[in-house]
Write a structure and sequence with these properties.
Layout (H helix, E strand, L loop, with lengths): L14 H5 L8 H9 L18 H5 L16 H15 L3 H14 L4 H13 L3 H14 L4 H13 L3 H14 L4 H13 L5 H10 L6 H5 L10
Helix pairs in contact: 4-5, 5-6, 6-7, 7-8, 8-9, 8-10, 9-10, 10-11
């Protein structure tokens, strides 16, 4: 989920922009995920691997009982269209990529990874209404798809629809309370709503394990937390 504006008290700095700053101590994959949840314009396609992949859900849970969407083997033609779409997205040929993602899901409606990436590409192209529709279709079709919920929450928050974003983020947390990303998104949305609460702080402290840049926000936390 890649587009959320956050404001740090005092500096009015977008929190997700801060979190997306490169960290020499992070792996490339972790840095990509931070960039992918930023509201800093069009995210470079090469920086989207985790938000664009269902495998993210398995690596996002530190517990033994990691949540994951059931494996799905897409039809060969759908996989071919998907791979072409990914290639086009990396080349920043968004409209062509969107067409290929549409082709992939038309061939295989259960290709949830393609639905997810179609929504992200639509969002990047400024087609936010349809991106939201695609995310909602995704989570209705596969209600265990935590990544779909977090990406949708990020999109809603980027439109300043914070109450809706909070509700969706809470659904993600209900599904997968140990998800670093779900904790990051919920904590960030709460701050957007002006809820510098113990809950928001706890969520971000947990997310800090995966996202060390969160520390800069936590260090600026108000002396008095608000109630939820």
């Amino acid at each position: 989920m890649r587009r959320l504006l956050r404001f740090i008290s005092g500096g009015m700095l977008p929190v997700m922009a801060l979190l997306a700053q490169p960290n020499p101590g992070m792996t490339t994959a972790q840095t990509r995920e931070l960039i992918a949840v930023s509201e800093m314009g069009h995210t470079p396609p090469e920086a989207e691997s985790l938000s664009r992949s269902l495998t993210f859900e398995e690596s996002d849970d530190p517990t033994v009982a990691a949540h994951a969407v059931a494996a799905h083997q897409p039809a060969g033609a759908a996989r071919k269209a998907f791979n072409k779409a990914e290639h086009l997205a990396k080349k920043k040929r968004g409209e062509e990529a969107i067409a290929k993602y549409r082709e992939a899901v038309a061939i295989d409606p259960l290709y949830f990874e393609a639905w997810n990436n179609l929504a992200l590409e639509l969002e990047a192209a400024g087609q936010k209404r349809e991106a939201e529709q695609v995310f909602r279709r995704l989570i209705e079709s596969e209600p265990r798809h935590v990544l779909g919920f977090t990406n949708l929450a990020a999109l809603l928050s980027g439109q300043k629809r914070y109450a809706e974003a909070e509700a969706v983020a809470r659904q993600a947390m209900k599904l997968h309370k140990y998800s670093f990303k779900a904790n990051l998104v919920l904590g960030s949305v709460l701050i957007d709503e002006g809820k510098w609460s113990d809950e928001a702080k706890s969520d971000l402290q947990y997310a800090q394990v995966r996202y060390p840049q969160v520390k800069a926000l936590l260090d600026r936390w108000p002396a008095k937390s608000t109630r939820n």
